[in-house]
Design brief:
The complex is a heterodimer of chains A (250) and B (481). In chain A, the strands form 3 sheets. A 6-stranded mixed beta sheet of chain A has the order 6-9-10-3-11-12, with helices on both faces. A 4-stranded antiparallel beta sheet of chain A has the order 2-1-4-5, with helices on one face. Chain A has one domain (2-249): P-loop containing nucleotide triphosphate hydrolases (Rossmann fold, 3-Layer(aba) Sandwich), CATH 3.40.50.300. In chain A, strand 4 (54-62) and strand 5 (65-66) form a beta hairpin. Chain A has 9 helices and 12 strands. The longest helix of chain A has 15 residues, at 95-109. Chain A has 250 residues and is an alpha/beta fold. Chain B is an alpha/beta fold and 481 residues long. Chain B has a domain at 128-151 and 164-172 and 190-475. Chain B has helices spanning 5-19, 36-45, 50-65, 104-113, 117-123, 133-147, 155-161, 163-169, 180-188, 428-436, 441-457, 462-475; strands at residues 151-154, 193-197, 223-228, 233-239, 250-251, 254-259, 264-271, 285-294, 299-306, 311-314, 317-320, 326-335, 340-349, 355-364, 369-378, 386-395, 401-410, 416-425. In chain B, strands 1, 2, 3, 5, 6, 8, 10, 11, 13, 15 and 17 form an 11-stranded mixed beta sheet that branches. A 7-stranded parallel beta sheet of chain B has the order 4-7-9-12-14-16-18, covered by helices on one side. The radius of gyration of chain B is 22 Å and the shape is globular. Classes of the chains: A alpha/beta (250), B alpha/beta (481). At the A-B interface, helix 2, strand 6, strand 7 and helix 3 of A face helix 10 and helix 11 of B. The structure holds adenosine-5'-triphosphate and magnesium ion. Residues 40-41, 85, 170 of chain A line the site of magnesium ion.
Chain lengths: 250, 481
């Protein structure tokens, strides 16, 4: 599904990703962990095509296609979804209206007509129910005045609406209370299938208790310094990152 | 007796004038320049009574003594008032012209706005097909209106048919000497609309909805007079979302609203005159004076969406004369490329317990300049007056400007005045967030701008709001590269 080869990326001439290699197959869940500032969000942004970051070397390949020349919206149309670590506020635009626009733009890109209003309504109702989102919430301005946890749950609601192929969840668990974490994780699990893939960025094991990863990678200073199975996360929880920092200074 | 197609067409064309709202004046244009003879000639041409001719002459005398104002935050080459022709008959359809002769760019824009082919033809002065829905529509509505005693006609017709009303109210809210452009308009106004709603009558439809397109060619010196008698209600729509590429560079309209005791007037405008090219050349100068007066418990609400014109100078105002009267101003002003807008409102509180609300949304892109200028005045006997003002500016890019000039004059200690102002920029992060959800940048801008303008868009009548949204989108196309 996703293949990243020797990816280097910098911002303002400062290199942040220093040669990332990663392969994610359909049906898999990968987790990326790593200390603050190691480049996790940057990797997510680069996959999503944020122009602020310059790819100086390497490539990102989605289903055999090099994404080099694809604009962020085109990547979205191809099925890339990013649940933001810090979701952005758009005053005056309701969640519903935003979703309607997003869905219809994706359909337009695929040569389809706008989704019928009653169909849209049904979809919204279904997904809101799944994530236990009060419908009053959907008429509010996008992320404006939302609590931290509400913002995160709203990101997953959007993911559920858009049904992406590759979902990157950047610290979606932080800010969620215990119940919300369970609801959101259940939602993600329901959306998981053998045809899509999930990349989880997190600092905590508790999310991985719910969404069990097939692989765990540790990102440090712009490089993946260790990969392993789900046990690696437990080991990290116990030992922290220091042993890895010392271990790998290639 | 069977008609030939040609005869039928002719018949329908003349019917259009019969039921329409224009006086049928033979096609003719006056020599350029302005003097007393020209003023008299205009009046004569329109077969006006003597009092009207004298009123025009008086206005002309006042205008001659005045100088063009310079306080607004706009820069332009002053028009040469002696180089303009002050009278030209409304253009008639050119039978040889077809839509193929029209600038394809303009047609593209019409399509985006969802303007029907018939309407496009009217706008472009192309002879319209034989089936003229608007004729029958106009007739039906005119009948509905007259059953309620509502008068809705051209101001020229009103001067002849209802002189007592016109004489009483014209210039009562915007006096001839009010300002330079108002004085000029009073001397040479070409035509415009007149409306009278009798006591206690609620006008059953949005006035001018069905005639909006027809009004596109009303001319450069439009005059509107709207009187809502005691306890009546009317919602009036002015303007047209279709881009009007008028050859007249200078537009100086005057609108006067009179809301008598307990009456309510809602006046909505969409202005989309030619803004000039991307290089800043050409474009319409729009210098408008709009003012309403509220008697006891009356309410006037101005809502405007301004996207056009190279230079806009416009301050729809309310004089809150009667106790408990209410004035409202909701405005969206968009400037792009080299456009300049200096708009705002004046709320003059004279009566007790008067209230006013001002919501102004300015959106600037390109190299444009967008200024809000507002005056809130509380007179000494206006006990317990209240005003709330909110001026928000949205900037796109680094080369445009937004300016806010709020003036507040309070002569009564019991007044409560609140003023809020914000300036924001469309952020890269907002755009990336939208892009990531599959929304391309142009669409994302439209979405953000619509969200920003929502409080004002919500005040527009339904169908107008939909068009206004599309218009905002089109006006800002290409504003972020
Ligand atoms: N636009 C930018 N300009 C300058 N530096 C940047 C920019 N974006 C990211 N960085 C830097 O790149 C490094 C990696 O940042 P990134 O946000 O990817 O870290 P992270 O691993 O997601 O951290 P956290 O766990 O705190 O979310 C940091 O040192 C950060 O300061
Ligand atoms: Mg991060």
């Amino acid at each position: 599904m996703l293949k990243i080869n020797n990816l280097h990326a910098s911002v303002d001439g400062k290199e942040i990703l220093k040669g990332i290699n990663l392969e994610i197959k359909a049906g898999e869940v990968h987790a990326i962990m790593g200390p603050n500032g190691s480049g996790k969000s940057t990797l997510a942004s680069v996959i999503a095509g944020k122009e602020e970051f310059e790819v100086t070397e390497g490539e990102v390949i989605l289903e055999g296609e090099n994404l080099e020349d694809s604009a962020p919206e085109e990547r979205a149309h191809k099925g890339v979804f990013l649940s933001f670590q810090y979701p952005v506020e758009i005053p005056g635009v309701s969640v519903t209206n935003f979703m309607k626009t997003a869905i219809n733009e994706s359909r337009k890109a695929r040569g389809l007509e706008d989704m019928k209003a009653n169909e849209m309504l049904k979809l919204i109702r279904e997904k809101a129910e799944m994530l236990e989102i009060d419908r009053k919430f959907l008429s509010r301005s996008l992320n404006e005045g939302f609590s931290g946890g509400e913002k995160k749950r709203n990101e997953i609601f959007q993911m559920a609406m858009l049904e992406p192929k590759l979902a990157i969840l950047d610290e979606t668990d932080s800010g969620l209370d215990i119940d919300a974490l369970r609801i959101v994780a259940n939602g993600v699990n329901k959306l998981k299938s053998k045809d899509n893939a999930v990349l989880l960025i997190t600092h905590y094991q508790r999310l991985l208790d719910y969404i069990v990863p097939d692989f765990v990678h540790v990102l440090h200073n712009g490089r993946i310094v260790k990969s392993g199975g789900k046990e690696l996360a437990l080991e990290l929880e116990e030992k922290g990152y220091d042993w890895l920092k010392n271990e790998v200074t290639v | 007796m069977a008609y030939t197609e040609e005869e039928l067409k002719k018949e329908l064309e003349t019917k259009e004038y019969e039921y329409g709202f224009y006086t049928d004046i033979e096609s003719e244009t006056f020599p350029i320049g302005l003097n007393e003879e020209i003023v008299i000639a205009i009046s004569k041409k329109k077969e006006e009574p003597e009092w009207m001719t004298l009123w025009r002459l008086e206005s002309f005398k006042i205008w001659k003594e005045m100088t063009e104002p310079e306080w607004a935050n706009v820069h332009y080459t002053k028009p040469d008032f002696q180089a303009i022709s002050y009278y030209s008959a409304p253009k008639k359809a050119d039978p040889n012209k077809t839509l193929d002769d029209v600038d394809p760019q303009l047609l593209e824009m019409y399509k985006k706005l969802g303007i029907s082919v018939d309407e496009q033809k009217k706008l472009q002065n192309v002879a319209v097909d034989i089936v003229m829905d608007s004729v029958s529509v106009a007739t039906t509505f005119k009948k509905t209106l007259s059953e309620k005693g509502i008068i809705f006609c051209s101001i020229s017709e009103a001067i002849k048919e209802h002189p007592e009303l016109v004489k009483k109210y014209i210039g009562s809210v915007v006096p001839q000497k009010d300002n330079y452009y108002a004085a000029l308009n009073s001397a040479v106004f070409s035509d415009g609309s007149f409306c009278y709603i009798p006591k206690g009558v609620r006008c059953p439809m949005e006035l001018s909805t069905y005639f909006r397109i027809n009004q596109a060619g009303t001319g450069q010196f439009e005059r509107t007079l709207l009187i809502a008698d005691e306890g009546s209600y009317v919602s009036y729509l002015e303007g047209c979302t279709a881009p009007s590429r008028d050859e007249n560079q200078l537009h100086a309209a005057v609108v006067e609203l009179i809301a008598l005791d307990d009456a309510e007037i809602k006046y909505s405008t969409v202005q989309n005159w030619f803004p000039g090219g991307k290089d800043g050349k050409g474009g319409v100068y729009n210098f408008v004076t709009k003012r309403g007066i509220c008697e006891k418990n009356a309410k006037i609400s101005w809502t405007q969406v301004e996207t056009g014109s190279a230079v806009t100078w416009k301050y729809p105002s309310c004089i809150l004369k009667g106790d408990n009267s209410i004035g409202e101003f909701y405005s969206i002003a968009v400037t792009n490329n080299y456009q300049q807008a200096d708009t705002g409102t004046k709320m003059i509180h004279l009566g007790k317990n008067t209230r006013s609300t001002i919501i102004s949304k300015g959106i600037s892109a390109g190299k444009s300049q967008n200024s809000y200028r507002g005056l809130v005045q509380i007179a000494s006997r206006a006990d317990n007056a209240r005003n709330f003002s909110q001026c928000d500016s949205l900037l796109m890019g680094n080369e445009c400007g937004a300016h806010t000039f709020p003036y507040i004059e309070v002569k009564n200690k019991s007044a409560q005045i609140e003023h809020e102002a914000t300036t924001s920029k469309i952020g890269e992060d907002q755009l990336f967030y939208c892009n990531q959800r599959g929304i391309p940048t142009e669409k994302a801008i439209a979405l953000i701008v619509n969200g920003f303008s929502k409080e004002v868009l919500n005040k527009l009548p339904m169908e107008f709001a939909v068009e206004a949204q599309k218009l905002l989108e089109i006006s800002l196309e290409g504003s972020v590269g």
